[in-house]
């Protein structure tokens, strides 16, 4: 707790310094948000042997890392999946909710039905509610993204990682900039979603299996759970952006079908797979 308090103070001092230099309330808010996440970070205990110390992990190449993670996790991971009517290799879908700092991992049964495998606390993401608009704005993105096997990064400096695909066609149409937005391990983040090392191992192995044979995995990042009550409290500055996300959120909530999202004339268009 003492370390968290110290980190909080350091972050707050940095926030004030940067805000004075940049004359930016948004920068200060981002640093305060980051500091509060450090102080209030949730953890999730998973039933696997712990990863090796970071120094040992960093000394492994990508192949050795994956062998190590699979050896430790796979026997029990198959049991965890089966207990939720899931199995390794099923299509996967991720939903992220920034306000509650949650990441949901869903898997699709052969019948087409989607099952929630697990909800993970996000250890840290930077910025505040609202979309990412430019490189270096410290914002984690909001929108609809797609991951392929080429976007997996077992050699990440943040244990394991995968790129979510920001900027997408919608972001580019709105001149949004930025790159290398990941879901990764560790507990630090500037624009990405940090999940802790033990948690990213489970997510990564499930995603890796889901992405075989050229498949993709949708990642939907929302500011919050977009209920009617919560939308009434939405910040006016982001209202238009959030209204674009609402139909996809509502479709999955009501029908449990992952919507097909395209971009036409700078607008999201929502359909069905």
Give the CATH architecture of the largest domain: Beta Barrel
Count of individual domains: 2
Question: What low-confidence regions span 5 or more consecutive residues with pLDDT below 50?
Answer: 18-23
CATH superfamily of the largest domain: L,D-transpeptidase catalytic domain-like
> How much beta, percentage-wise?
15-25%
| CATH top level label of the largest domain | Mainly Beta
Structure, described:
It is built from eight helices and twelve strands. The chain is of the alpha+beta class. The protein folds into two domains: 1-40; 48-272, Beta Barrel (L,D-transpeptidase catalytic domain-like), CATH 2.40.440. Helix 1 runs antiparallel to helix 2. The radius of gyration is 19 Å and the shape is globular. The relative contact order is 0.14. Mean pLDDT is 89; it is low at 18-23.
List the topology elements:
Layout (H helix, E strand, L loop, with lengths): L1 H21 L2 H16 L13 H5 L3 H21 L9 E6 L4 E7 L5 E8 L2 E2 L17 E5 L4 E2 L7 E3 L5 H5 L8 E3 L8 E2 L2 H14 L6 E6 L5 H4 L7 H17 L3 E6 L2 E6 L1
Parallel strand pairs: 1-10, 8-9
Antiparallel strand pairs: 1-2, 2-3, 4-9, 5-10, 6-7, 7-8, 11-12
What are the main properties of this structure?
globular, 5-stranded mixed β-sheet, 12 strands, L,D-transpeptidase catalytic domain-like, alpha+beta, 38% helix
